[in-house]
Design goal:
It is globular and about 65 Å long. By secondary structure, the protein is an alpha/beta fold. A hairpin with a 2-residue loop joins β16 and β17. The strands form 7 sheets. A 4-stranded mixed sheet has the order 3-2-1-4. A 4-stranded antiparallel sheet has the order 5-18-21-22, covered by helices on one side. Strands 6-7-8-10 form a 4-stranded parallel sheet. It has 14 helices and 22 strands. It folds into 2 domains: 143 residues, Roll (Urease, subunit C, domain 1); 300 residues, TIM Barrel (Alpha-Beta Barrel). The structure holds zinc ion. The site of zinc ion (ZN) has 6 residues, from β6. Zinc ion binds next to β6.
Length: 483
Amino acid sequence: MAPQGNKNQLFLGLFIHSTSLGELQYLHNTAICVEKSGKIVAVEQKCDQKKAEDTIYPKLGWKADDVVVTTTKDGQFFFPGFIDTHIHAPQYPNVGIFGKSTLLDWLNTYTFPMEASLSSLPKARRVYTRCVRRALAHGTTTATYYATIHVPSTNLLADLCLSMGQRAFIGRVCMDAMGPDYYLDESAAQSLIATQQTIDHIHKIDPGYTLVSPILTPRFAPSCSRKAMTSLGKLHEKTGIPIQTHISENVDELKLVKDTFPEFPHYTGVYDAHGLLGTKTILAHAIHLSDEEADLIAKRGAGVSHCPCSNSALTSGEARVRWLLDKGIGVGLGTDVSGGYSSSVLEAARQAALVSNHLVMPKKGNEYNETNGNKTIQKAKGTERARLSVEEVLHLATRGGASIVGLVDRIGGFEVGMEWDAQLIGLGLVDETPEEDDTLDRGNVDIFGWEKWEERVAKWVFNGDDRNVRKVWVRGRLVHERI
Ligand SMILES: [Zn+2]
């Protein structure tokens, strides 16, 4: 691949990004200039290459022969890179393998044995390299990873993200209380030391955390002692390093939390009491929260990673995303590999739309009849607004994710001052002469040419995959290319 990122770059053509929840902006015939550092320094509408060279380059002090130019072809557009706010890299080999299990038996049957085996560095290198490459191929430019309890292989994941150019948060998993004997931190003190070792390593390889950052990762409350959670809360207070964990995913888990922590009013209260609930906390799932818990999360300014593929696969439940948003809680999307069966954020976006539709469907005890003229329609009580549109799920996949990982000023959209984390999407244009059409292998999205751009984007959301991701950049560096 060309060593872009150390040259100034001009991007030309159609750019699509979310400007607010439910709203996509279509910037046709637009020029975006990205300087060597990867920062967007100009966005000019109604602008072609000549106009950019004549009017923008002089202001930037650029010379035309020193600029790499990328132009969208017919059916192509630039879109902000996806942000996966919850993914377990060591579980990547298990994608799609969950049988009929639900959360707690799934952990023991599939997850802990796989995670424990990644104490082997050669195995970790093989799994993590493919996991990061596959995520980049899906257009994921930022990922918040859970690794394992092992320091060397967790540090290796950080090294790989840095060398492959993916923006990443790397969490060494803390679990000193509940887990199999063969896969557990020795003590709260040892858990803290190991966490600090990974932080030190990341600080050494990327001192400014420009691409790779550490993230404190108590697996979930039942797997951590009070002592371990207290020490992580203090470490967070001292360093400002963000936190990720799971919350309210499964009804058996809720009972386990209640039994393990009877002194706290609810699950959210456990994290809050240990200093783990704040503006830099990412809570995955958040399905079965009470109003009181959601209000506390909103008050503390923590964000939620919505993981619809996982929640359906493990029969965990349907997170009420609109309800969370209405409470003022920031929401992003997570693939939750391998509770989730795919590392594609586009898949998570489409499942987020479908799961939200399920919330609108009448269920026993939740239905009412609405009469319109002589027609009676059965509806679900109080849930009409739950449905998420294509525009809304794409917002969650980009700006929503950026907000909960604390990078809303840097990634998720195309404004001056933001960084060029982007993907070039290509949709298949069906030839006008069907007998000569050889475009079947260009992906699963067939565009006939009469669709409006809004319709093309909807076709992409529901039919697209990594074949549509032609190029991917992070901070201006080309990190994936499909010819
Ligand atoms: Zn998870």
